[in-house]
Amino acid sequence: MHVCTDNPNRRGGYLLLEVVLAMGLAAALLTGIFVIADGTLSIADKIVTEGRSQTRGESFLSFLGRNFEELPGNAIVELKTQETSARFLPTLTIQNAPASFSFAGQPLSAEAIVLRTVPVPSGGVNVVIDYYEEQILDDDDGLAQEQQEPIGSIILYRDLWYFELRALDIRTQEWVSDWEIRGRLPLQIEMNAVFEPNGDEVVHYFWLPAKENPATLVRSLSTGRQGGANRNQRGNQGGAASGGDQGGPGGGGNRGSGGEGPAIPGVRGQ
CA of 253: how far to CAs of 214, 220, 243, 259, 265, in Å? Predict the structure, then answer.
């Protein structure tokens, strides 16, 4: 006996409408996944960018602070600010602060450094440091050579949106944009900077601790040694004169031959 199992009402496949709806749901689901993934990647990229910018800024501030704090007592600091229609362009020169660094794989040393700002097409500035082998400012040791070329230049920070330096005069308690006082350092250096086009203004203060001039210290030590030598010489001369008096006739504490000094009990004169 043959039994027919075919159902005349059973469909053999999916309708076109069902296929379209399934593809639409899959597309919507994939789109949502891609949107979430793209947003996650954007947030991660923003975090990395902000972290990198913050690290650059902290390294920049640390470099400046370390160099200001290590200035010797005979250092010369000169600050000049060029005012333009768009921004301030400070130039900071530091002399008698030997700096050792490596440039193009070669160890070099500089007697003067210049921190300057260079405008860039993006609207910001690059902060550049130049190293000079000889002095570029006049001081007590001699006159500077004119039109010197730096032995090395390094860009410390690229595309800094805003950068300004001011010096604090301890005598007047005023902040000035130009400092050309020889033999005296400002108490503080103020830095106003905006690291990003839409970033916040950063105000940082660098202390310049007062230190004794090495030349003054050497002169004082030399004067002290000379004064000590003179005192020793006078003491030797005084001792020699005193010894001569004791060796004269009748001047000794013990009775010598023909001496008239007082006799010591228990000691007989010879």
Answer: 52, 44, 12, 10, 12
- Both tokens of 250, joined, read 């009748």
State pTM to two decimals.
0.62
User: Is 255 a domain residue?
Assistant: no
Nearest Cα to Cα of residue 116 among 97, 136, 89, 85: 89
Query: By mean pLDDT, which of 155-164, 190-199, 206-215, 229-238 is the weakest?
Result: 229-238
Please name the helix (run of DSSP H) or strand (run of DSSP E) that holds residue 79, with its range, or none: strand 76-83
Q: Which residues of 255-268 are buried (b: 16+ CB within 10 A; e: fewer)?
A: beeebeeeeeeeee
- Identify the domain containing residue 149 by its residue range: 55-215
Count how many domains the chain has.
1
What's the pLDDT score for residue 135? 81
Q: Is the residue at 20 inside a domain?
A: no
With respect to residue 13, please indicate whether it lies within any of the assigned structural domains.
no
Q: Residue 179, Cβ neighbours under 10 Å: how many?
A: 21
118-134 pLDDT, tens digit per residue, is 999 888 899 999 999 88
The answer as to whether 229 is a domain residue is no
> Residue 129 CB: number of other CB atoms within 10 A?
23
- CA angle (180, 134, 98) in 5-degree steps: 80
Contacts 24+ apart (CB under 8 A), 78-82: 78/137, 78/179, 78/180, 79/165, 79/166, 79/167, 79/176, 79/177, 79/178, 79/179, 79/180, 79/186, 79/189, 80/178, 80/180, 81/164, 81/165, 81/177, 81/178
Q: Output the CA–CA distances (angstroms, integers) from residue 229 to 216, 219, 224, 237, in the order listed.
A: 20, 15, 9, 12
Per residue in 183-194, pLDDT (tens digit) is 888 999 999 999
